[in-house]
Amino acid sequence: MSSENFKTYLNSDHLDLIEGILNRAGFEEISPEYSSYAAFLVGRFERGTTSRAELAYSLQRHHGAIQTELSRRLPTRFHRYAVQGLPDAA
To answer: How many CB atoms are closer than 10 A to CB 18?
Structure first.
């Protein structure tokens, strides 16, 4: 029985891809989160996610951007009622 290794190894093009995804997401190399998000993307890449779109989407999900976008689309005039309850009918 042979053991198969499906790990994907990184080269300079792959690192450029990851750097481009982080830059497009608005992270600068001097930011404290940059290295942790870069490590997250490297891990995803090594596990087989090699598409730019899939890596960017997984970064958004990991970072929480999708939840933020959803909360921005909520109508603000109803947010008050979610906290306070509906007004009494007169």
So the answer is: 21
Q: Which residues touch 6 (CB under 8 Å, ≥6 apart)?
A: 48
Q: How far is CA 8 from the centre of its chain?
A: 21
Judged on CB neighbours under 10 Å (0-12, 13-18, 19+), 59 is: buried
Residue type, 14: H
Q: Measured between alpha carbons, how far is 49 from 85 in angstroms, rounded to an integer?
A: 44
The predicted-structure confidence for 18-72, as pLDDT tens digits, reads as follows 999 998 888 888 888 888 889 999 999 988 888 999 999 998 888 775 444 444 5
C-alpha 70/C-alpha 3 separation (Å) is: 44
> How is residue 75 annotated by DSSP?
-
Q: What are phi and psi of 37, to 5 degrees?
A: -70, -35
84, 35, 40: which is closest to 62 by C-alpha?
40
